[in-house]
Design brief:
Strand order of the largest sheet: 1-2-3-5-7-9
Pfam families: ECH_1
Mean pLDDT: 95
EC number: 4.2.1.150
CATH superfamily of the largest domain: 2-enoyl-CoA Hydratase, Chain A, domain 1
Oligomer: single chain
Radius of gyration: 19 Å
Low-confidence stretches: none
CATH topology of the largest domain: 2-enoyl-CoA Hydratase, Chain A, domain 1
Order of helices and strands: HEEHEEHEEHEEHHHEHHHH
CATH class of the largest domain: Alpha Beta
Distance between the termini: 47 Å
Family: Belongs to the enoyl-CoA hydratase/isomerase family.
CATH architecture of the largest domain: Alpha-Beta Complex
Strand content: 15-25%
Number of helices: 11
Shape: globular
Protein name: Short-chain-enoyl-CoA hydratase
Largest sheet: 6 strands, mixed
Structural class: alpha/beta
GO molecular function: 3-hydroxyacyl-CoA dehydratase activity
Length: 261
């Protein structure tokens, strides 16, 4: 295996208003290296800077895993202070994903473990194949912990009882268990997975970008501050061209032509 293959990559492709990000290290089930985390951050910056992008799809290469955590070799020789720095670094990447300008979809085939679950969890929507498994089994495997911020994120989406079972019992629930909780937008077999994701993208592409952006920003703010002030977002939404277009389209009984402004 070459050095580049060992380090892995996050591939970026933009087409039809959709940014496709692929975690490409299949020999290691797409376990994240520092290089891959940095490339993820670079991809997110590209998305935010490109007004043509309306949706982002994140997926693991190889069809066996979304992301199977962080590469364990990077933890050799860690101290307590290294752990604090690592968790802060991961928090920053996950927060950047939460705050990217467009709606995000995680496509989970196989495993979303540890850091991979944190990434999938930070996406707005998740689609999984049957039997896909989600978890953070570190109480059984590594003996480390998650940051309060990532525990808060998991608790917000999965609920406290499920997170406790994941963390304390090292459970890895399957897609079929999580779907009834509303955690997954869809479960689709491999042969229809691409079509299922494409339908979700088409729906998002047909919706008002400003409304979706402001709503996501407000939800992110409310997750850390229940009294967060949303006046700036409300002002931006009601003052947008898209709002005026939406009102006109509704009254004229025609589809709205959203501009994202």
């Amino acid at each position: 295996m070459s050095g580049a293959e060992r380090e892995g990559a996050v591939r970026y492709r933009a087409e039809g208003g959709i940014a496709h990000l692929t975690f490409d290290r299949p020999a290691a089930r797409n376990a994240m290296t520092w290089r891959m985390y940095e490339e993820l951050a670079d991809c997110l910056a590209r998305i935010t800077a490109d007004p043509e992008i309306r949706v982002a799809v994140l997926r693991g290469a190889g069809g066996k895993a979304f992301v199977a955590g962080t590469d364990i070799e990077q933890f050799v020789g860690f101290t307590g202070e290294d752990g604090v720095a690592y968790e802060a670094r991961i928090d920053a990447y996950v927060e950047a994903l939460e705050r990217v300008r467009v709606p995000t979809i995680a496509v989970v085939e196989g495993l979303a473990v540890g850091g991979g679950l944190a990434i999938a969890n930070a996406c707005d929507l998740r689609v999984a194949t049957p039997g896909a498994r989600f978890g953070v089994p570190i109480a059984r495997t590594l003996g480390n912990c998650l940051s309060p911020a990532n525990l808060r994120r998991l608790t917000a989406t999965l609920g406290l009882p499920t997170v406790k079972r994941m963390m304390l019992l090292a459970e890895m629930p399957e897609a079929e268990t999580l779907a009834p909780l509303g955690y997954l937008a869809a479960i689709a077999p491999a042969e229809t997975l691409d079509a299922t994701v494409a339908r979700l993208c088409d729906r998002l592409l047909g919706h008002a970008p400003v409304t979706m952006r402001v709503t996501r920003e407000m939800l992110n703010a409310l997750a850390v501050d229940p009294e967060a002030d949303g006046s700036a977002g409300i002002r931006a939404c009601y003052g947008s061209r898209d709002f005026r277009e939406g009102v006109s389209a509704f009254l004229e009984k025609r589809p709205a032509a959203w501009s994202g402004t």
